[in-house]
Structures are given as structure tokens and as C-alpha cells.
Amino acid sequence: xxxxxxxxxxxxxxxxxxxxxxxxxxxxxxxxxxxxxxxxxxxxxxxxxxxxxxxxxxxxxxxxxxxxxxxxxxxxxxxxxxxxxxxxxxxxxxxxxxxxxxxxxxxxxxxxxxxxxxxxxxxxxxxxxxxxxxxxxxxxxxxxxxxxxxxxxxxxx
Length: 157
Prior knowledge:
Elements: E1 3-5, E2 17-18, E3 25-29, E4 32-41, H1 49-55, E5 58-60, E6 68-71, H2 72-84, H3 89-100, H4 112-130, H5 137-141
Parallel strand pairs: 1-4, 3-6
Antiparallel strand pairs: 2-4, 3-4, 5-6
Helix pairs in contact: 2-4
């Protein structure tokens, strides 16, 4: 089956590939929920496993047990749909499940909780970024309630 190798340019093999926590890694994308084999780069000069996923625009559901990730595009799409169309997370996740298997005979692995955590974290990071609080981890961790509020300027013409 398909094997995705992180940490190296496409087509270049890694001499020290290592599996994440689980052999069957689940990726949530806009066209469904997919279980595949993922290999992390084990070279000494490489980034951490979480950084390797982020470099490939995969947002991990956990930093200690790498089993699930969502693409940046699916998180952004859900964020926009929830804001503009009021689509619930459950309905959006059901859509992704149906795109994977509309018959229900072999549904994808259940990752709704992980999807909710990633979506919540994604929205929080976007809020920090838009309020100018997301560039320094110390500032982001110390942000108090209400500090991300942005003021609107109304121009009179």
C-alpha cells in the first residue's frame, strides 16, 4: 500500500525510517478519512516527529502518541464552514466518513474526538495569530481571557 515518508524531499529514501506510535496512521482530509502507513525520518539532523508532520501540513491530534492527523486544508475548511454556514462538527465529520465509505460496510476508524480536539486547537491558534499573540510561545501560553479581542475601526465617508 501507500507509504508516506516524512522528513525528506519527495522520492528520496530515508536510511533510518521509523514508524510513528501506530503502524496504521489515520489522516483526515477533505475527501475522507484514510488509514495509511507513515514513516518518520530517524536521521540525527531531522526535526521532531511533530515538526515533521507540520512541515507536511499535517496537524497531529497528539504530540506523544502519533496516530492521527488532519490536513491543514480540512481544518481550515471546517473552520470556515462552521463560522459562515453554522455547520456542526458532527455533521462535517459524518460527511468525511461518508466520503470514505458511503455504504457503511467498512467505515473508517472512529476519530471524532481527535478531530474535535484538532479543530478546537486550530481555531485557538488562528485566534492567537489574528490578535498578534501567536508568535512567541511564552506569550501564547500566558494570554488571558479577553486579550485576543481586536478593535474595529469604522471609517465615515
